[in-house]
Batch of 3 targets.
Target 1
Amino acid sequence: MPPFIIPPLVKWTLVALGGAAMVHWVVREVKRANEELERAKVRARVTDRERRPYLRLDPATGEYRPQ
């Protein structure tokens, strides 16, 4: 059986298509990860605000103290 010979142009075309597919996949995954991180940041900000104590001015000392 003769060896299977692929012309160089076909090889480079396949490499280019594979590279483009990989770049497309990486970009999609990075966008997905960034969206997930952004949602987590928003949840953390809301949770942090709920737990943050309010500060009131203490008239005796003039300092702000937690409520």
Target 2
Amino acid sequence: MRRKIAFISEHASPLAVLGGIDAGGQNVYVAELTRYIAKKGYDIDVFTRWEDPALPQVTDLKNGVRVIHIKAGPIRYISKEELLPYMNEFRMNMISFMELEEIAYDLVHANFFMSALVAMELKELVGIPYVVTYHALGKVRLLHQREQDRFPEERLEIEKKTGAKADRIIAECPQDKEDLCNLYGMNSGNISIVPCGFCPSTFYPVNQSLARTVLGLNKEEKIILQLGRMVPRKGVDNVIRALSLLATKNVRLLVVGGDSENPDPASCPELGRLQELAAAAGVQSSVTFTGSRKSKFLKYYYSAADLFITTPWYEPFGITPLESMACGTLVIGSDVGGIKYSVEDTKTGFLVPPRNPQVLAAKIDQALNDEYLIQKMQVNAIKRVHSLFTWARIAEMMIPVYEDVLDKASTRWKSENHTKTRVYFLEPSKKTLKKIR
């Protein structure tokens, strides 16, 4: 019998258009990991908050994965910073769905602290073990964003409590594990490091001249690329400032991302701020804001670029460096979090301090003026991501974690209840979940 796993990702749907303020790496993580886990013989339901009334409650992706939209508050977009009060309704309606379909999940994989809260409460109610990937930690965010952090202060206590009660915590890189241990006092023995990945069938090298033709880009310019969500912490302003300091001439910065395919500062204030910064720095004519782009087109942007730049203030992991390396494009990234784990400094790219446009400009100049260096790093980058970071490999790393958690949970149940198996009996008429052990 196929194991059944419930993924909870309250604000980050695998169906979302990437690049918006709340749509980025977590959406990719959930979409790709579930797809590859399902290939290994698991049935997966992804529970996410219902925010688009045009979408059905259940979307069957026909690959062993379903996306279940759960009503939690009004069916419209609400920023993730404002979602915590709706998590009780999320849990109740998730249970109602389980009762209606008479589904008993073997395991819950929670993503983000609010999903972890729901998973912890489900474990308390019906005993389903859970693992959690936080994707970002409140204490780290608060350290960097201070008064700009709009999450409720309860986040920190929820992270600490859900981590202590989790059957396993998934850290995305060594820095993530260190932060969990040092900032939250988590048991290092209950933390498994499983990184993020990329999809080789989506991201692969395209001839640079062809890629620029497809995108209508100037083949004579040097192109540096910034791609991701349009939020201040991603450090796009740092790249714009570095552009104004370059000694190399005829360089264009492409900024891909935003809430829509047509860049609109009225709907994306961060875009407006960056446009004003480019004008003030005297590089407005050398910066192109493209808006968001669908995943199938991103390989052309990575391949068209001479360099990919990502210099966030902090980064729990960062999937875009993997995608860039998979396309054979050298990465210059912040020496923080997951980037310093995925990018091998001086071999597959360069690591620089965040918020330091002078150092970044020097590295850009160095790379753009050394063709041999670029070619060497391109080869190294492709080898590294294919050996360590494909989603197929990540799934192969995650499954033993799941099975270990399930084996230990089964052993506990046998010890406590003197039975061989544990199942859930669902009573839809009474709207309760009842355990039979």
Target 3
Amino acid sequence: MCPPELFYGRASPLTPNREGFLADFPLWAVVAVFLTAAVAVALAGTRMVATADRLADRTGMGEALVGGVLLGASTSLPGIVASVTAAAQGYPELAFSNAVGGIAAQTFFLAIADMVYRRVNLEHAAASLTNLTQAGLLIALLVFPFLAAAMPEVTVLGIHPATFAIFAGYVLGLRLAMRSRLDPMWGPTLTAETRTDIPDEPAGGGRLLLVLAGRFLLLAVVLAAGGYGIAASGAEIAARTGLSQSVVGAYFTALTTSVPELVTTIAAVRRGALTLAMGGIVGGNLFDTLFIASADVAYRPGSLYHAVPDAPYFLTGLCILMVAVLLLGMLRRERRGFANIGFESAIIFVLYLGGTGLMVAAL
């Protein structure tokens, strides 16, 4: 059995604040709020794929960027609300674990989507320079929490300098991804199984474009509201049941707030929008790094990176390893693996389930 010190050897976080709006509710009511918010998140997420696909065509941004920026960020709204709310209420470990747990879960969802797409390995069919760029940037941004934790606890207005670096890296990375689409220096070899991003609708549209944007915004608001409900109820469940904040964040709130990504990814694969599916996960994970930075801003006692124990950093390292495997899979572009799943997806399965086992064994 893995010793608990591997995950929980650092100083414990600040005592949580129990003044949330659910503090006086019975446990069954808190669970009901959690389930209701989860259903709202799932229903709203299922309706976003078709709208995002049409926006990719109408705006001319392409599926990879729309998937990574609009779809990925919008389906991530419940997660960022969950992390920020948890940090503001005094649950830094829950906030951090929700962020990195969501990245791990959503990368795992891509392996599931690979199984759903029967024709060929998903990483082969959805080859895209933009997605490769975003995956590389994701690995880079996930390194910043490690650097912050290794540095002295220095803050500016209660915010660690690494937080500013994450925000800046995200913005500069999006600019790089946009340039890679507009002026690519190289691209994937086209094969019979490659699904290129060919628009189904002409660019523009005037009033129709505004209607699509309005619909997308409304669904995003529903997702954000659901995320707040999940965060508040998840924090209460963690406090009342005595469960580890890392476990609740990584495998409770993170998985629930990641339901939109799972639903939209499977829907996009079945729709044939493979680049949108891949971009939604990779770009969404890239946006999820902002959860950590935003939670550091919301956590007022000091640096979030120094307030959490070791378990979230184990999850962060696991995320880096999973994304690196995915990136190598997109570069290798294996056509078919074993039992209709690529070898990189099989490795991701093993890493995620193995990491979960280690977390549970350490309790």
